[in-house]
Amino acid sequence: MTDRKVTLSEVAKRAGVSLGAASKVLNGGTSKIGVGAEARKRILDAARELNYQPNMAASILAGGSSKMIGVFVDSFAHYRTMRLLQEIERLASEQGYRIITSFTHDNIANMREDYQALQRYGVNSFICCAHDYPNLKNEVAELFKGAKNVVFMEKPCIPGMPYARTSRLKALTAMIGDAYKQGYRRIGLLHGHHTDLTERTLHEMFLEAMTANGFEADEKLIFESPKSPADPQLRVHAALEKMIRPYRPDFLFVDDAASAVSLRNELFNAGLNLTIYGGNNDPLFRYMEMKSFDPCYEQIAAKLLNLLFHPETRSEIPVIEALYKK
């Protein structure tokens, strides 16, 4: 028994569309052919049902697309980035694309090799979630200099490059206001080291949210984790000894679930109690009966893909606000 390759004509016939429409969706095809959402779904469903395998090399030579997106991810990234990666993969798949992921940490040579290798294999669209390396800004800028089809998650160090930005300002403002109404008065923050842009931004937003509620933040109730060790348990132990025991906050925002769970255990062992609110919507928060912001991962992924597929939208920077859940 031989394995016969399904042809594009068979997919088009199953979906009830023209050969050109099927080629547009599955192989990139010409931009002159427009395909509606309903027809696109029929084509993708037919391709899956028939197990159609596009000829990538032929598609690229014909001026089409590899239908693959390269995604750069920091291999030390926490739940937030991994959850976003899931949404990028899901939404890209719905549009007929596959993702190929490059994992690396603080290693510009590996990023360069992966970037060049992916392009050799026909990948010409990229999402970068691994560029916040304080000591490698010049190298990152050089790597992506002149790139036409790379979009970034959060602001890159390269001027003029398209990116999607997230904000927790409104969520923090609502959280702090609600905490005050519930009787909490010593509201604090535990965050990572300031060398990471996201951690500096979180610190600034917390201060701004306190001000928006008419309060002056007490810097003694804000603990910045040391850059090392990386072990969350050791970091929260330092927070317990240097901030929580001496200054006694009664409400604490902890973005990362692993740190929040470790802190909860430290507090239990020390016979202490305080309310913890989280930021990345990790299921661990729910299991430990702690509430968390909804970062709106699907919206973030959708904005990144929109920037990638529609260059004409890049003049504006999309901002995705996290949602506070009472």
Please, could you describe this protein's structure?
The protein has helices spanning 8-15, 19-27, 37-50, 56-61, 79-94, 108-120, 137-143, 169-181, 197-212, 232-247, 257-270, 283-287, 297-309, and strands spanning 68-74, 98-104, 125-129, 150-153, 163-167, 187-191, 222-224, 251-254, 275-278, 291-292, 319-321. It is of the alpha/beta class and 326 residues long. The protein has 3 domains: 8-61, 434 Repressor (Amino-terminal Domain), CATH 1.10.260; 68-165 and 297-320, Response regulator (Rossmann fold); 169-292, 3-Layer(aba) Sandwich (Rossmann fold). β6, α9 and β7 form a beta-alpha-beta unit. α1 crosses α2 (19-27) and α8 (169-181) crosses α9. It is elongated. The termini are far apart.
Tell me, what's the shape?
elongated
Beta-strand percentage? Answer: 15-25%
Q: Number of DSSP helices?
A: 13
Helix content: 40-55%
The figure for the number of domains is 3
Mean pLDDT over the full residue set: 89
State the CATH topology of the largest domain.
Rossmann fold
- Neighbour order of strands in the largest sheet: 2-1-3-4-5-11
The assigned CATH architecture of the largest domain is 3-Layer(aba) Sandwich
Q: How many extended strands?
A: 11
- The CATH class designation of the largest domain is Alpha Beta
N→C terminal distance: 61 Å
Computed over alpha carbons, the radius of gyration is 23 Å
Element pattern in H and E: HHHHEHEHEHEEHEHEHEHEHEHE
Q: The biggest beta sheet, please?
A: 6 strands, parallel
